[in-house]
Amino acid sequence: MHWTFIIKSHPDADGNPVLQALRMAASALADEIGISIFLTQDALSLALADADDHTARHTIQRDLLAEIRELGGEIRAVGLEWLPQTPPRPLLEGVVSAGMKELVRISKMSDQVITY
Question: Could you tell me which Gene3D superfamilies the record lists for this protein (predicted)?
Fold first, then answer.
């Protein structure tokens, strides 16, 4: 079984949907469900290694991303070319850049696609 999580909410959004998505992904991994996470739109800042958003909320979210990577979850960033900064910014360890084709391909093979 494989689930795809598309996280597009801002890390500071009301209700903390990013944290909820990451907690659900970690729980799925613990239950032996393969997962892929795609960070896109407002959630792209979580993928950046040089982000300067050092709030407690962001630290918890990044810690969960690290735990998910350690458990074998795949984490991809989609839409980096739309970020206003050049040259390209470095990504967190274990996060890879991906395109829409890869998002569609993995979503098609997934048993469930969950968007936050």
Answer: DsrEFH-like
Instruction: Give the tokens for residue 29.
Output: 């991994």
Question: Integer distance in angstroms from the first to the last C-alpha of the chain?
Answer: 20
Q: Provide the CA 88 distance to its chain's centre, in angstroms.
A: 18
Which residue range forms the structural domain that includes residue 103?
Answer: 2-115
Bridge-based pairing state of the strands 74-78 and 112-115: unpaired
Backbone angles phi, psi at 63, to 5 degrees: -65, -40
* Total structural domains within the chain: 1
Per-residue pLDDT of the chain (116 residues; tens, 9 = 90+): 999 999 999 999 999 999 999 999 999 999 999 999 999 999 998 998 877 777 889 999 999 999 999 999 999 999 887 766 656 778 999 999 999 999 999 999 999 999 99
CATH code of 45's domain: 3.40.1260.10
